[in-house]
Amino acid sequence: MFDFSKISKKSLIGKFLRKILKLLPKNSVLPILQGKLRGTKWIISSGVFSYWLGCYESEKQKSFIKQIKSGDVVYDIGANVGFYTLLASKLVEDRGRVYAFEPLPRNIFYLKKHISLNKLKNVEIIETAVSDKEGEENFLEADSVTSRLDSVGSFKVKTISLDNLVKNKKILPPNVMKIDVEGAELKVLLGVKDIIEKYKPIIFIALDNPDTKEKVIQMIKNFGYNIFDLNFQDIQEINNISEIICIKNENINFRTFK
Known about the structure:
With 258 residues, the protein is of the alpha/beta class. The protein has 10 helices and 13 strands.
């Protein structure tokens, strides 16, 4: 996979490519150019160009692909406009299931469009924020990527606890969870404690809140998980780590590292 994002904006080729990309009509629907999602229909205006180019978070994509197999159940918590939802849908195939959790109306619009354009039958969208309890919380709408639960937010969104959904058999328990909630990671984990203890899913977490990073790491360790970076190296220093993969100790096997 070629990572276009590594081309300097200041280089001649970087300037040229960006000029070409700006000429594309905003509402164009085009096939993703490379990677596992190559050929998947994508709306250009939904987000950054690296989605359509297929190189969005290339290292995380590779790790994600290694951990998901046909028939798995995947939770995409903080689904945004659906890049990882579509990727998980392809990986789990018809026997699997993907639950996409997203509270922001703008993102839900594109998420639904992408699922419809690609005629996906194994995805369910749940239009709520994931937290440690059911109810309502303030939501800060910064932009399509960094919006988050925040006490200073200007509007309310519904929140759910995933433990309750699984307990009440409204959704299937997960094999893999992807958590990218722009700083609300601790709240999500507090609401999935029963799931983690009982079902031991593989967990991908984006560590977006420096104030809770150590607490998140410690909580995962207390669950009996090993923690790795995206290259499956043991975490030695957390200050510069923004993405982690968490795997229950007894579930570590050769497939994890190949």
